[in-house]
Amino acid sequence: MHRTEVISEIELLEKFSKQGESYTNSSGSYGWRNPIRSDTGIILQSLVIAEDPVRILEIGTAHGLSALYLALGMNENCFIDTIEFDHDVGVDTQERFDRLEVPGKVHIGEALDMINKLEGTYDLIFFDAQKSHYKRQLDLLLEKNLVKKGTLLLADNVIDRSEECAEFLHYFLENGINHTIIQTECGLLVGKL
Ligand SMILES: C[S@@+](CC[C@H](N)C(=O)[O-])C[C@H]1O[C@@H](n2cnc3c(N)ncnc32)[C@H](O)[C@@H]1O
Description:
Bound molecules: S-adenosylmethionine
Shape: globular
CATH architecture: 3-Layer(aba) Sandwich
Order of helices and strands: HEEHEHEHEHEHEHEE
Largest sheet: 7 strands, mixed
Number of domains: 1
CATH topology: Rossmann fold
Oligomer: single chain
């Protein structure tokens, strides 16, 4: 992975408006993708450094801003799978990974369908697609044993979109799962199964 180039790419993506305006690149405009806010990337990177995972799953790729931060924290044995249902965006982000030699694969399709096709277990999951689907995505991950005791669960937007995340948040409380919410602009849940 070209770390210096990944950092430059992050700097470029961070310059785009995060809310309300379109991302554009040479292929045109992709619309509003609501990526992580600028306070969150460094936390994602730090958690990956501390956790030293081998397999990461991200749900909600967009243009790969959060994935690039996660990748910066990864050691050379780690691989990131990430899911995006917008075909053009997914293809573009895979090209970005390939150009930067980020060890990652964009799975293009609806998250629940893609999760159904995954195998093995993941050490770290980052939820950042449809907020109202976080709980059912977690249920499926549990049902398929894609997560295990010790898997680190991260989820964005648990403060600014807490109503949509309510069922998901309730799961952590109801089951006594060790977790906290970092008071970022959007609210980042950090929990460990
Ligand atoms: C909040 S953005 C992800 C931002 C990205 N994690 C970042 O910070 O750079 C959510 C992305 O998930 C995709 N998405 C939303 N619902 C989805 C679903 N049910 N299945 C797959 N992708 C989905 C959207 O197309 C969008 O690109």
